[in-house]
Amino acid sequence: MADSAATTPVIETAPFQGVHAALPHDSAARHVAGSAVYIDDMPEPAGLLHVAFGMSTKAHAKITRMDLSAVRTAPGVVLVLSAEDIPGENDVSPVIHDDKLFAADEVYCVGQSLFAVAATSIAAARAAATKAVVEYEDLPAAIDIASARAMDLKIEASQRMARGDARAALATSPRRVQGRFAIGGQDHFYLEGQIALATPREDGDVHVWSSTQHPTEVQHLIARVLGRPDHCVTVEVRRMGGGFGGKETQASLFAAAAALVAVKTGRPAKARPDRDEDMVMTGKRHDFEAAYDVGFDDDGRLTGLSLELASRCGATTDLSMAINDRAMFHVDNTYFLPAIEIVSHRYRTHTVSNTAFRGFGGPQGMIAIERVMDAVAAATGLDPLEVRRRNLYGGEGRNLTPYHQVVEDNVAPQLIDELAASCAYETRRREIEAFNRSSPVLKKGIALTPVKFGISFTTTFLNQAGALIHLYVDGSIMLNHGGTEMGQGLNVKIAQIVAQAFQVGIERVKITSTVTDKVPNTSATAASSGADLNGMAALNAAETIKGRLVEFAAKKWSVGPDEVAFTPAGVRVGTETIEFGAFIRQAYLARVSLSSTGYYATPKIHYDRATHTGRPFYYFAYGAACSEVLIDTLTGEMKVTRADILHDVGKSLNPAIDLGQIEGGFIQGMGWLTTEELVFDAQGRLRTHAPSTYKIPTIGDRPAHLDVRLWKAGRNVEATVHRSKAVGEPPLMLAISVHSAINHAVASVGDYAVFPQLDAPATPEAILMACEDVRTRAKNA
Amino acid sequence: MGATIRFLLDGQVQEVKGANPTTTLLEHLRGPMRRTGTKEGCAEGDCGSCTVLVGEADGEGVAWRAVNSCIQFLPMLHGKALLTVETLAKGGELHAVQQAMVEKHGSQCGFCTPGIVMSLYGRAIAAKGAAAPVGEVLAGNLCRCTGYGPIIEVAKGVEAEAAPVVDLSAVRDETMLSLSFEDEVHGVTRTWLSPRTVEELAQAYLAHPDATIVAGATDVGLWVTKLRKPLPTLISVSEVAELKALEETSEGLRIGAGVRYVDAIEAVAKLYPDLGQMMRRLGSTQVRNSGTIGGNIANGSPIGDMPPALIAAGATLVLRRGAERRELPLEDFFLDYGKQDRRPGEFVETVIVPKLDAGRIFKVFKLSKRFDQDISAVCGAFCMAVEDGVVTDARIAFGGMAGTPKRAKACEAALAGKPWAEATIEAAMAALDSDYTPMNDMRASAAYRSLAARNMLRKVFLERQDVETRVTPESALG
Predict the structure, then answer these.
(1) Which among B271, B340, B267, B260 is positioned nearest to B299, based on CA atoms?
(2) If both were cysteines, with which of A178, A185, A245, A474 could A10 make a disulfide (CB 3.0 to 4.6 Å apart)?
């Protein structure tokens, strides 16, 4: 061991902080300094071309003429591309090959890409794009769910998930109510819009910086458009300025257009739609309609439920099949439904194709059952929380989901009890109802709702991940994995996992961009799976290298493998401890491979889509929230005054990051259910396509009292990475408590005698109209 | 006349020659200056990702303002000083607000973060409007990731510090900036004029009656970034000294057409507290730091929030054309949708706001989907005198209910001379239906607009009986 001190460590080892430490986001210092580089911040390469799109102004029409000659001759224009210029397949779709890069002879939505123009400046490209002469012959268009239903347009056959005989149970139920309501969509409103920067390489290859959650799919789609093998295309992502599902499939069109321009011209090309173009051209959260027929007894226990879901999928399939499946998977939420039938209609409309958005259909399914719980409470006169408690999973024969997965990790009862006690739910509910009796205009409402969210891609094969770790001879670590960083703190979590494995300071671990030539065939960073999958893959890579290092040390210093240990002070070999960097150098000199890939595939899961049965989820994430609101019954204005949240992230990989996900998810969900309203006109044009008309929450919308806590007892019963749980999506659904609380406040207008018809989003208009409706019905009752 | 734009960046003189005058400050920063920390999130002044601080001469000192650089035209920076997010970290060491943002986990995706940092830094150096409650200061900085909690924590802890010392004399220019640019993309020769005196302005506008008048560019900026209009001639009124005057007289206020919201709120709030409150929700700090009351009137928008309130208050306008001046009641200025009583070459010079007579009720209600920084679906203003239980006078005006901001004459008539009683109010509420036929749009349905407008009058009645009728978020975020 004489030469162990021969090298000077280049990196000072800080006090050890591995997993479970509340470390800041790895890019935080660069975020605040403005030095974190997003694609549009990169120095523009010489000769850069800017790409703009010509878009359909019709919802559904045959293109009878498309004259692009004025586009071609506009100042600064270098290239104009339309469908016939595509060397490969005219397709940028994730699943079904039905999203065209450029419309061929028919358009299926307003905002559909018709052609791309590449010019020497973005202003020139945008101005040129307006010079196209396009003539159409209108075809019948379905803009919303109702019109698609009338025209019987669907993206696939309606799906049915059932357990028990719901109809028979309903027929014999002591009590029964029916209702329906509408649930609005949501724009992602990532602050950084869609963007891609393509650089040509030799031999017709291309490198593309893309702001995407799914670099592998972008790579494959570009290759398909170019008609080249996948290995000709490299896609790279350093970070996104927000994703939320909106950059899972929606990035492909922009990346493919930029790549095509780059390959055709031999010049770099950037495609960056402005905010309005982005909102018009890209998909959103699906809006839904839900109709329920629920049977229950006088104690509020459900006996049978028949639920019909309908969604607006937009013009193409995109991910709508899986999204609508996930809506069905979440109709049970935390409740045992003794006899259940869920029918899901996936309507094709002539609007932009709706896509993934945090929760992926789950929120729409979940709010449906929460609405049912409130309806049952209203019918029985019971406290809605009591109705919820009585219907929770648990007890003999009460653990089977509608898709026949056994709930093995149910912690909802404990979470609800703890939260109800800590936020004084019952006392406050009484106080609120007293306040409402004395306040003629302003009314309060309160609701406590739980969340149970299934973790895993329900398309089983997607549940795999890869990672790549290099140790350099100075002991610094380069870590790559298949996940992408969109602000959710995935990189710092995975760096923590690797730092923990080697017992080194986090500063030794560098994570750079996600790139398809380092880790191939990745799944999207989606379904909350980023840390679960990629963390395990990275851990696997680290363990492989550690195994080699242990073997090396045992041999070199003649000790047993169990006498080699990685510690924060360095690598302990027998009785001596060697500084990590020095140790790694020794291993290098001994010709030990210091690089390894890692791989992970989620165990236990399987699913049969034909019967909608199986175990689609490895485990469930749980949470509960109690929200209190104040409404103005003369204008419908509303303020969330207080929210208390208790959420289970298992053993948190990073409590600071997890708390940020929970709070941010809750506020985003609150926006979905309150101020964020997408408005399409009768011609299928989106009227809310910029922040001036589409209103996400501002700082003032955050409840003045917002208490967010991680559940201390949390620990994943499944062997996930360090027993943590996924956190990306589940917290969004905590905001269902806000909608339920508004409903409670509105009900006060009719002294709780009638159940309000409150659709989502509960805008001031929706709230005021619901109040009016309650007043009228209460008067007539 | 100068043809070079000069400004200070971190105290250093920057000169720009031959620029397209409708280049936005953001484009200039991100392009030629390679200061890419400042982001484009919306290019319409709604998200705040592009927030920078602009300093300008204010008496002997320098007044700093947070503005949205995405809708500021580069020539508007002439003679001023600029600070961007790159200014803050010195020698690789983060500024205190940046450090606090890191420690409190105030960034996730990081894209809105530079703008938030600049708004917070503005608070530290006492920039205009930055001492207001946190919720008000940051209402113009959208964040989609964090839910704002950590940012509020940081904002509450911002410590005051001296603003950077800049020497504006290096860029001072008392002459009219006059720029000309060949815009090949739009096929126009674009002219920009920044007159310094009202006389110069009057002459310039007479000479170019088709010119677009620009004040804070919070609206005209979007004509470029969104509507992509060619705008061959632009005349900036923001350097016209006389138009920036705000006079408190014995009759009330004389507000120069170039007075920004931020500089008017206090004086207006003194006369009309409810209007002062509403102005704090109008746009955002960044918008109020640029936008002018004159611009909100002159652009003739049917949903501008100031006109209904000012009409109810009985405001008048002074219009000027060449050497001619005329005065007319504000309500008569709005002729029809998109049409104002303004002749070619004529501009709004002054807004005269009378004092509120003692004992009068004055209420403003602004209804929008979102409380802060949202354009109204309906904005109603009520100015009423009640003597001995009888309504002796009522001036009521609404925005969002017609093609122009408009008086509710039938409603007023239903109130005048009637007892201040529920029956009167209900009759007057019903009368609103004959005053207005509102439209359906993305902000609200006609039915909602009508109902909410009626209910606003009920609120006036109830508030007089001390009934709580507003969900107004209190300064819990303060």
Answers:
(1) B340
(2) A474
**Nearest residue in chain B measured CA to CA from A273:** B42
Q: Is A729 a catalytic residue?
A: yes
- The pLDDT tens digits of the residues spanning A543-583 come to 999 999 999 999 999 999 999 999 999 999 999 999 999 99
Using the CB atoms, write b or e for A607-628: b if 16+ within 10 Å: beeeebbbbbbbbbbbbbbbbb
User: Across the interface, which of B110, B459, B469 has its CB nearest the CB of A36?
Assistant: B110
Band the pLDDT of A4: cuts 50, 70, 90.
Answer: very low
pLDDT value, residue A9 = 43
Above 80 in pLDDT, residue A5? no
Candidates B144, B448, B474; nearest CB to A765: B448
Please report the pLDDT score of residue B473 as a whole number: 60
Q: Computed from CA positions of residues A429, A434, A437, A440, in that sequence, does the dihedral angle turn out positive or negative?
A: negative
Percent of chain A with pLDDT over 90: 97
Q: B43 near B225, Cβ under 8 Å?
A: yes
Q: Which of A31, A41, A678 to mutate to test the interface with B (most CBs of B within 10 A)?
A: A31
The reply to whether CATH 3.10.20.30 applies to domain B245-468 is no
Q: What is the pLDDT of residue A398?
A: 97
Mean pLDDT of A90-98: 95
Contact with chain B for residue A40, Cβ under 8 A: yes
Q: Give the pLDDT band of residue A15 (cuts 50, 70, 90).
A: low
Of A634, A688, A700, the CB nearest to B469: A634
How do beta strands B339-340 and A606-608 pair? unpaired
B451 touches chain A (CB under 8 A): yes
What is the least distance, in Å, from the CA of A446 to any CA of chain B? 16
At A17 the pLDDT is: 82
- Partner-chain contact A24 B144, CB within 8 Å: no
B86 in contact with A, Cβ within 8 Å: yes
CA distances from A382 to A372, A752, B16, B314 (A): 13, 11, 71, 54
Read off the pLDDT of residues A325-370 as tens digits, 9 standing for 90 and up: 999 999 999 999 999 999 999 999 999 999 999 999 999 999 999 9
Name the β-bridge partners of A135.
A65
Report the percentage of chain B scoring pLDDT > 90.
Answer: 95
Q: What ipTM goes with this model? A: 0.97
Q: Provide mean pLDDT across the span B1-29.
A: 96
Q: Which residue of A has its CA nearest to B230?
A: A127
Distance between CA atoms of residues A32 and B92, nearest Å: 12
Neighbours of A15 (CB within 10 A): 7
3-state class (DSSP) for residue B233: strand
**Residue A458 and residue A627: Cα distance in Å, rounded?**
31
Nearest to B77 by CA among B87, B90, B67: B67
Share of chain B above pLDDT 70, in %: 99
A73 touches chain B (CB under 8 A): no
Check if A726 contacts B (Cβ < 8 Å): no
What are B398's strand-pairing partners?
Answer: B380, B406
A357 within 8 A of A527, measured Cβ to Cβ: no
Cα distance between residue A673 and residue A663, in whole Å: 15
- For chain B, the domains span 245-468
Of A780, A779, A774, A776, nearest in space to A754 by CA: A774
Q: Spot the catalytic one: A89, A729, A765, A772.
A: A729
First to last CA, chain B: 46
Q: Does A441 touch chain B (CB under 8 A)?
A: yes
Confidence band for A2, pLDDT divided at 50, 70 and 90: very low
d(CA B78, CA B65): 15
List the structure tokens of A231.
């290995």
Residues of B in contact with A702 (CB under 8 A): 147-149, 152, 477
